[in-house]
Design brief:
The complex is a heterodimer of chains A (107) and B (121). Chain A is an all-beta fold. Chain A is built from no helices and 11 strands.
């Protein structure tokens, strides 16, 4: 089973700042990595797929990078609605796993 | 607009059984694989199961293999999860999610709002 480890667990920033979230895989997942955003009381929403592609309707301030075992989600300038929990996810051979999540909170 | 509406979540005793349903609309249901994902209260996301667009292939997380069965009825645009031998650790909000790829396996987009299963005596 591929284990995804996200860091930090909590990130405290102010609106307008840049956020950098990390996800590390226990073995290579190539570019088969996605990022989801989950706000309280809501279902997760797909943000980034295949490591660096924005999903439909996702603002350009969200970007993803990386391949192999190390991945990054960057939010260039935080908006108030971006404060949420972010999960990375990998898919391999009909098995899927999520990281434990990074909570992005207002400082 | 794609809509996924889960139902069937209740309080059930350990060892009991339950069937969850997910009603889909707004897309050609039999073109897409479908998933179940769960989230224990205050915890992260855990993939549970996947079924192919035609129902011919199914996959499970090790934690539910042998106890849960995923199925679909394409004539009714519906997805199901039969849950047997339930344990306290199965307590979670269960989401159904549409696969993003036509006739393939890809990412989860979108998700329903979930149905809550509580396993407790």
């Amino acid at each position: 089973e591929i284990v995804l480890t996200q860091s930090p667990a909590t990130l405290s920033l102010s609106p307008g700042e840049r956020a950098t979230l990390s996800c590390r895989a226990s073995q290579s997942v190539s570019s088969y990595l996605a990022w989801y955003q989950q706000k309280p009381g809501q279902a997760p929403r797909l943000l980034i797929y295949d490591a660096s592609n924005r999903a439909t309707g996702i603002p350009a301030r969200f970007s993803g990078s990386g391949s192999g075992t190390d991945f990054t989600l960057t939010i260039s300038s935080l908006e108030p609605e971006d404060f949420a929990v972010y999960y990375c996810q990998q898919r391999s051979n009909w098995s899927y796993s999520f990281g434990q999540g990074t909570k992005l909170e207002i400082k | 607009e794609v809509q996924l509406v889960e139902s069937g979540g209740v309080v059930v005793q350990p060892g009991g059984s339950l069937r969850l349903s997910c009603a889909a609309s707004g897309f050609t249901f039999d073109d897409y694989a479908m998933h179940w994902v769960r989230q224990a209260p205050g915890k992260g996301l855990e993939w549970v199961s996947l079924i192919s667009w035609d129902g011919g292939s199914t996959y499970y997380a090790d934690s539910v293999k042998g106890r849960f069965t995923i199925s679909r009825d394409n004539s009714k645009n519906s997805l199901y999860l039969q849950m047997n031998s339930l344990r306290a650790e199965d307590t979670a909000l269960y989401y159904c999610a549409k696969d993003a790829a036509v006739a393939g396996y890809d990412w989860f987009d979108p998700w329903g709002q979930g149905t809550l299963v509580t396993v407790s005596s």
